[in-house]
Amino acid sequence: MKLLSIGFGNMVSARRIIAVISPESAPVKRMVSQARENGRLIDATYGRRTKAVIVMDSDHVVLSALLHEAVAGRMDESESEGAEND
Length: 86
Fold this sequence. Notes:
The chain is 35% helix and 31% strand.
């Protein structure tokens, strides 16, 4: 299982990520609000501003204080390391 660092010592399973998106649009804000209401929200921001929203295949929504580009870049690095090890 490949773990992806999303900041402040928090990690998620890289293989279970569906999308990494910016939190700015109204539909994303609505998705985060609904996840909070349904108990599917994981806040990994440590009180900082949310800069990335990570959608997992388990229907959970993870908030990160890292920029969505940084999280996506870490995913690319993780995938390239996996290809080298295969």
